[in-house]
Amino acid sequence: MLFTIVGILIVLWILGFVVFHVSSALIHLLLVVAIIVGLVQLFRGRRA
User: Fold this and answer.
1) What's the CA gap between 18 and 22, in Å, rounded?
2) Cα 32 from Cα 48, distance rounded (Å)
3) How far is residue 47 from each of residues 3, 5, 40, 42, 43, measured CA to CA in Å?
4) pTM over 0.85, yes/no
5) Helices within the chain (DSSP H only)
6) For residue range 10-39, what is the model confidence (pLDDT) as tens digits?
7) What is the dihedral of CA 15, 42, 36, 20, to 10 degrees?
């Protein structure tokens, strides 16, 4: 489920940055959140 959220956030980041030409801090914050969620899922998956 978290990988789905990561995928959605990355797609939104790409759309906001490329298609809509928005370069605000919010778009980059989406990328950071996607990376953090992905790393959390990666580390939790290895412990289980």
Assistant:
1) 8
2) 25
3) 17, 21, 11, 9, 7
4) no
5) 2-14, 25-47
6) 788 777 777 766 666 676 777 788 888 888
7) 0
- Could you give phi then psi for residue 24, rounded to 5 degrees? -80, 170
CB of 40 closer than 8 Å to CB of 1 = no
Render the burial of 21-38: b for 16+ CB within 10 Å, e for the rest.
eeeeeebeebbeebeeeb
Residue 12's contacts (CB-CB under 8 Å, 6 or more residues apart) are 30
Residues 6+ apart with CB under 8 A from 30: 9, 12, 13, 16
With tokens 């990376």, the residue in question is: 35
